[in-house]
Amino acid sequence: MNDYDSLRLENQLCFPTYAVANKILRKYQPLLEIIDLTYTQYIVMMVMWEKKRVNETELCNTLRLKTNTVAPLLKRLKAKGYLTIGKDKEDKRNLVIALTEAGEQLKEKAVDVPKSIAEEFNLTKEEAEFLYKILYKILDYEKEE
Fold first, then answer.
1. Which of 21, 32, 134, 142 is deepest in the core (most CB within 10 A)?
2. Where are the alpha helices (DSSP H) in 35-145?
3. Whole-angstrom Cα distance, residue 33 to residue 19?
C-alpha cells in the first residue's frame, strides 16, 4: 500500500455512503410524488405523525437539520394544510409545530412507503438491522477532544 492509496475512491467510506444515500432517495421519489411530498417534507411528517406537536428546536435536533433548512419545509407543509405553526405561550421565542387533521390523514396515504422501500433492496432483516446500527453509530459518534 502506497501513501496515496487512501485517496483512491474505492477506499473511501464517504463514497459508497453518498452513492447509497442517493440511490435510496431516488427510490423514494416516485412513491412520495404520489402523496405530493419531497423526501425532507416526508421526514418532517414522520416526526409529526409520531409526536403530533413539537417545538422547532426539537424537530431540528431529531432530523439533524438546521433551522434554515427546516423553516421553508414547515411553511410549505403549513400551506398544504398539514401543520400549524405558532408561538409557544410560555416562551414566545419558541415556535410550536402541530399536526392538523389533514396531516394525520396523510399518514394513511404514506403507510405503505416504508414497506415499498424495504422491498426495493435485497437485505435480510438482520442485515438491515446491522446497517441501521452502524449508520447510527456513525451519526452519534462525537470525537472527544
1. 32
2. 39-51, 56-63, 67-79, 101-110, 113-120, 125-140
3. 22
Burial class (CB in 10 A: 0-12, 13-18, 19+), 44: buried
- As to burial, measured by CB atoms within 10 angstroms (0-12 exposed, 13-18 middle, 19+ buried), residue 84 is middle
- Distance from C-alpha of 27 to C-alpha of 37, rounded to nearest angstrom: 14
Q: In 10 A of CB 74, how many CB atoms? A: 21
pLDDT tens digits for 6-39? 899 999 999 999 999 999 999 999 999 999 999 9
Angle at 39 between CA 132 and CA 44, to 5 degrees: 80
Which has the closest alpha carbon to 42: 54, 52, 32? 32
What the chain holds in terms of domains, given with CATH numbers, is: 11-110 (1.10.10.10)
pTM: 0.89
- pLDDT, tens digit, 9 for 90 and up, residues 100-144: 999 999 999 999 999 999 899 988 889 999 999 999 999 988 665
